[in-house]
Structures are given as C-alpha cells and as structure tokens.
C-alpha cells in the first residue's frame, strides 16, 4: 500500500486541506537509502516506511482535532511527540497523507540555518576570545583570526592551515618587516631585537581551524597587515582591540597597499561583528562604493591608515596586559 502514498498525497494537495499532526506512536517497517554523494543537508537520500498514529490539528480552528492511522514514507525518523505536516480529506478523515517532502524541506532549512548561526558565533568570538598575538582580518567572506606564536628556532617563519602560496609570502614579508623595523615598532630591549629574532621561529596560523578558500593571490595577500599586527601584539603585550579588524597588503618597503574591494572587506568585517575596519589610505577613493547603510551604521566605522604605526595606534590597546613578560 505504501506505493499509493505519493498518488494520494498529490491528490490531497489539490483537493484536500493542510494540517499539522502530532505523532502519538510510530512503528518502523523498513528503511532504505540511495547514493552516497549527497551533501549532509540532503535528507532525501534516506527514507523510512512506517505506520503512524497521528493526532491531526486542522488549520481551521473551527474543525476539531481527530486521530488517524496512516502507512507512510518519511525521510527522518520520528518519535512520539514530534510533528509532521499532513494533507487530509475533510469529508473522509481516513484519506490522509504525510507530506514527507515538506517535512524534509523544513528540516533541511533548519539545518542550514543552524550552520549559519554557528558561523555567526564563530565570527563573533573575537569579542570574547581576546588574547595576545591575535588579529582579525576579512578573508574571502569570513572574518578570520590570525595568530602569531614564537618559539626557539633559527629565524624561520612557518604558515600552517593555509595552502595558498600568496599567504605564505605575505606572512614572511610581514614578519621580515617587523624584524627590520623593530627599533621603531617595538619597545627597547637589552641586546636589541635582531639577535632575538634570529633565535626565534614564528608560526602563523588560524586558531579556529582551516581557513576558507581564497580567491587568489590578491585576496590572500591582504592578510599582511594582520600578520604584522599579530606579531607586534605578542611582543608588546598589547592586545588587538576586540572591535577592530584590519585588512591590506604590507609591502616590503612598509607601504600599506589597498585591498582590492573596500566594499567587500567592509561587508565581511561588519558581518563578523567588527566595529572598526582599518585599511590603507589607498582605499579612500573606494569609499563611495561602500553601501550607504554600512557607512551610516553607528556601530561601524572605516578608518584609513597611512603607515603601520597608524595601524598600531588605531588597533592595539594602550595598556599592556597585566602580568605580561617581555621576550627575554
């Protein structure tokens, strides 16, 4: 009888009434699946044949609830107390069909929304997970944390979690620039900074797992300013302020090069709950391309920097973290 279910469902969609039904009891009669390549959100590759006892609640409140037993196919296993969409014949309550397609669509939309909310939590974590050596920068369509950690070594820079070569190049150049200009970027240190850098390795990584795929060298190299800021934060004891994100290329000369699209970087930063985006003055001419709604947002601002010193001033806390010990 189960093969008749779809035909009955199609007929009731045309001539019947829609309702929500509470599952009073369910007995599984069989299970089957097809294919293995469907995404996790696609629930239609698996189905269950079952017998359900339902309490149907019509949309028209003038109609009283009624109970019905139905043989049906469903894509997600149900338990007593759960609800399913149904169609029924108001003149003959024995003619009832569970709308298993609408049920699967509803659940799949819920899974997508849950992933979206999880993503929002990840992107907003910079507001609560502050620590030294971490800066946030827009990459592709995600606000990404970049962490710089040092350990004893011989002056090398290692980039992990990031397969794009342009990212490695940008990170190496950023660390190299901080090292070459440590006298002006970092506080004085007995014995100077060059010998210290020569005996340390830096690991540049994304502390929340693999990063999103980048669109290419231009997009990837935008992490340069973020890497430099993360290094400086870790060595000065001053955290990057929780509301700040940075984006742009740090040239070997120290010049701050603009991001390809100020509009995109600003949108990603705001979506990640940043309240300030620091970029190069070279992006000022693109300000008119930023949506008016974003420019008028009282909780968000775009600030232009002419040098790495400006980025430091606009991004780092003024006070050193309590208990911070300068590198020895």
Order of helices and strands: HEEEEEHEEEHHHEHHEEEHEHEH
- Domain count: the total is 2
How is the CATH topology of the largest domain named?
Ribosomal Protein S5, domain 2
The count of β-strands is 14
Give the fraction of residues assigned to helices: 25-40%
- Share of residues in strands: 25-35%
Approximate shape: elongated
Put the structure in a nutshell.
The chain has 328 residues and is of the alpha+beta class. The protein has helices at residues 5-15, 100-123, 165-180, 182-185, 194-198, 217-221, 224-236, 262-271, 292-295, 308-315; strands spanning 17-33, 46-58, 66-74, 83-89, 92-98, 134-139, 142-152, 157-159, 200-205, 244-246, 249-250, 256-257, 276-280, 301-305.
